[in-house]
Amino acid sequence: MPLRPDTLIENATIITGDPDRPYASRVGLWNGVILGVDDDLDRFTGAASPVHVIDAGGATLLPGFNDVHAHSVWFGQTLMEVDLGSCETAADVYHALADRVETTTAASDSDDWIIASNFRPLALQDGPLRIDRLDETGGGRPVIIKHNSGHALTVNSEALRRAGIAPEHPDQPDGGEIRVDEHGRPTGLLDENAMRPVQALLQPESEGLITRALDLATSRYVSEGLTSVTDAGIAGGWIGHSPREFGAYQAARDKGLLSTRMQTMVTIDALHDVAGAPEDATVRSLSAGVRTGVGDEWLQIGPAKIFTDGSLIGSTAAMSEDYHHCTHHRGYFQGDPGMMRDHALEAAAGGWSLAMHAIGDAAVDYAVDVIGEARRRFGPPRMPHRIEHGGVVRDDQLTAIAGVDAVLVPQPRFIAEFGDAMSDKLGPDRSLLSYPARRVLDAGVVLPGSSDRPVAGGAPLSVIQAFVERCTESGQAYGPADRITAAQAVHAYTVGSAQTTGWSGRKGQIIPGQLADLVVLDQDPTDPGVDPSQIADIPVLATVVGGETVFGDKHWDARPPAQKETL
C-alpha cells in the first residue's frame, strides 16, 4: 500500500526551523512523524488519498517547544501545596498558612505537615518571616515553606525539632547554613545543604504522589505548547524526591500520565561506584552500568546533575569577587571541589554527560575546567556536556565554553521576575554579564530554551518574551546588549533545545522524518508586527505530540477517515 499522510494540515503559517526552507504552508503527518511539507507532499497526496485534512485558517505552526531545564515533580507538587507566589507581606504568608491549617485540621492528623511553595522572600515589603509567628500559625504542626529559588527553606520550631536541629548554636553543615539570630537561636531559614535534615523527614516520597505531580505538571506544560521537558535533577540530593524517582516516571508513562516527552537528569548523589573488570576504569553510575541515553523518545535518562554552587538570590552562588551588597562575602561551593571533580570525572568515565549547575562566575570557571578534563580524557559525550544557569559569565568564559563544546543554559525569565534583586546583588557591571543570550550565540555556543520552573514562570512564550525584552520587574533594562530577536528565541526553544538534549535531527524542526511535535498559535511571535511586550499573551490553540492532539481542538488528531475541517 502506498505511503500516505494520516493528516494533512494546510493554509497554515509554518515556521519549520529548517534554514533551507524556513517557511511552509502545508505539512503532512504519518505515524507520529513529519512526512513532508509543501511540494514534498505532492507524491503522497492524490485525489483518492484517504487523509484527514485540516484547514488551519492561517494559524501559525511551530515545532513543539522544548524546555531543557525545569523541575517537573517539584512543579507538580506546587500545584497541590499552599501557593505563596502572590504574597507581598509577612501577614499575607501567615494568613495563607492559617487558611490551610483551618481547612485541614478536621480532616487530617494534627501532626500533618503544612507545606507551602513559591515563596519569594525578597518580595515581602515588611521584612523576613518570624519563627515565633510561624509557630503560632502552625498551632503545633510543623511548617515548611519552600523558597522559589529551591535553594532555601523557611520552617518553624516544630520542623526544626523533628529534624534534630538544636534550638541553640546548632552545628553548621558543609555547603549550607542554618541561619541564627544574635543569640545563636535558629531563625527558621535553612540555606542549601542545611535543608537536608528537614527534607529527609518527608522523603522518599511515594510513587503515587510523584505520578500525581507529573500528571499535573505535564498537563500544564501542553497547555502552553511544550512537547518536551527535561527534569533537572531526580533521585538524590536536595532536589530529588525518591531514590526510585525514575521508576515513578516509568509508572506515570505506563498509566498515560505523561503528556509530554520527558528527559531526566539523575543527580550525582544517586550514582555510586560500579565495579567492572580489573582493566576497566573506575566509574560512577547506576547499577548495571545504566547511563546517559537509556530510554526512548518518550522517556529517557539524560545527564548527571552536579550542583557546584547556590543561587544569586540567596547570595550563595560562588563568585570571584564580593557581592555588591555584602563585602567579604563571595558565596560558596556546595561541596569539596576536589571531591565534586572526582565524582564528575568518574561519572563521565561511566558514559554520563555532565550537567553542572554553576551560577557564580567562580563556579562557571570550575565547571568549564571539569568539563574540559572530562572531554580530554573520555572524548565527546553522547549528549552535550552542559553548564546550567550562568548567572555571571564573562566573555572569556564563553570562549572557553565554546572551546570544550559545552552548552550554556540560561533562564531569561529570572530577569523579568527578580532581576531587580539580582542587580542589587551583583552591581551594575556584573549585571551586564548575567544570564547571557546574544553573547552565547556570538561565541558559537548552542543556546536552548529553559525556565527552571517553578523557580520562575515556565510558559515558553513568556520566556521568549523575556529573551527579547530583558527587562526587570520594575521595567529596568538588564544587560540589554544580550537581547535577541523573537526568531532567535524560538530557535532556542526548538532547534537549540533539541541540540542540547541530544535529539538534533530528530525533533525541533518541521522537516521530513522528525517527530510530529507541533504547537499551534493564534499569531506568529516572530512577526515584526507583533509587539514584543505581547508575545506572552499569544493564545496556544493546540499542542500535538507524536501526531496526537494533547491540548486544544481535537480535530488536530491524525485520523484516517477522509474529511475536511476548519480551525
**CATH architecture term of the largest domain:** Alpha-Beta Barrel
End-to-end gap: 30 Å
CATH superfamily of the largest domain: Metal-dependent hydrolases
Spatial arrangement of strands, main beta sheet: 8-15-16-19-20-21-22
Question: Helical proportion?
Answer: 25-40%
SS class: alpha/beta
Task: Tell me the overall shape.
Answer: globular
CATH topology of the largest domain: TIM Barrel
Taken together, the total number of domains comes to: 3
Give the CATH level 1 class of the largest domain.
Answer: Alpha Beta
Poorly predicted regions are: 559-567
Strand runs, count: 26
Largest sheet: 7 strands, parallel
In DSSP terms, counting alpha (H) and pi (I) runs of 4 or more, how many helices? 14
**Mean pLDDT across all amino acids:** 94
Q: What oligomerization state is this entry in?
A: single chain
Rounded Rg: 24 Å
Q: Strand percentage, roughly?
A: 15-25%
Provide tags for this entry.
globular; alpha/beta; Urease, subunit C, domain 1; 26 strands; Diaminopimelate Epimerase, Chain A, domain 1; disordered C terminus; 567 residues; TIM Barrel; seven-stranded parallel sheet; six-stranded mixed sheet; single chain
Verbal overview:
With 567 residues, the protein is of the alpha/beta class. The chain has three domains: 7-64 and 509-566, Urease, subunit C, domain 1 (Roll); 78-202, Diaminopimelate Epimerase, Chain A, domain 1 (Roll); 267-287 and 302-500, Alpha-Beta Barrel (TIM Barrel), CATH 3.20.20.140. It has 14 helices and 26 strands. It has helices at 72-78, 90-105, 131-138, 157-163, 196-202, 207-223, 245-254, 337-349, 361-378, 395-403, 413-431, 438-442, 460-469, 486-500; strands at residues 7-10, 13-15, 23-24, 27-30, 33-37, 52-55, 60-63, 65-70, 82-83, 114-119, 143-147, 152-155, 176-180, 186-192, 226-234, 261-267, 272-274, 283-285, 299-307, 354-358, 386-389, 407-409, 518-521, 540-545, 548-552, 563-566. A seven-stranded parallel sheet has the order 8-15-16-19-20-21-22. Helix 4 crosses helix 5 (196-202), helix 8 runs parallel beside helix 9 (361-378) and helix 13 packs across helix 14 (486-500). Residues 559-567 have low confidence and may be disordered.
